[in-house]
From TrEMBL:
SUPFAM superfamilies: CheY-like. The modification 4-aspartylphosphate is found at residue 70. Gene3D superfamilies: 3.40.50.2300. The lineage of its organism: Bacteria, Pseudomonadati, Bacteroidota, Cytophagia, Cytophagales. It comes from Rufibacter quisquiliarum. Signal peptide: none annotated. This is CheY-like chemotaxis protein.
Length: 149
């Protein structure tokens, strides 16, 4: 059985520097070779996706194949950013996985209503995060067929 190699970019939107580092390390722990890009709030996320401002170089900031989205961010939170992504005909095909500390039923319902692909509550331990990233990457990069970016 051959594993399909994906050269897709993972875009992680999270304002917490420690969480960004932990997610990156958890992905590396799973020997994921995909390029990882980071943005720190919803405004940066949309600038990245539209190649605006400091993200104008499309070669340096290619369209991601998967977005990991924190809900609680400054300037524009994940809920607002998700709504904009899913209402844009070019961006809405990008799978968005919410990765957040929120366990609020309202957030779960609202984000699925807005078109999120999955909702994951951030695990409390690094070992659990590594396990989540292992499952997530296996699912999104080995099992699922994704649209070409």
């Amino acid at each position: 059985m051959s594993i399909k190699k994906r050269t897709i970019v993972i875009l992680i939107a999270d304002d917490d520097a420690e969480d960004r580092m932990l997610v990156k390390e958890a992905l590396e722990e799973n020997r994921l070779t995909n390029e990882i890009q980071f943005v720190e709030n919803g405004e940066e996320l949309l600038d990245y996706l539209h190649n605006k401002g400091r993200f104008s170089d499309k070669n340096q900031y290619p369209t991601p194949g998967l977005i990991l989205l924190d809900l609680n961010m400054p300037k524009k939170d994940g809920r607002e950013a998700l709504k904009e992504i899913k209402s844009d005909e070019h961006l809405r095909v990008i799978p968005v996985v919410v990765l957040t500390t929120s366990k609020a039923e309202e957030d779960i319902l609202r984000t699925y209503d807005l078109g999120v692909s999955s909702f994951i509550t951030k695990p409390v331990t690094f070992a659990a995060l590594v396990d989540v990233m292992k499952t997530l990457t296996k699912y999104w990069f080995e099992i699922v067929e994704l649209p070409k970016p």
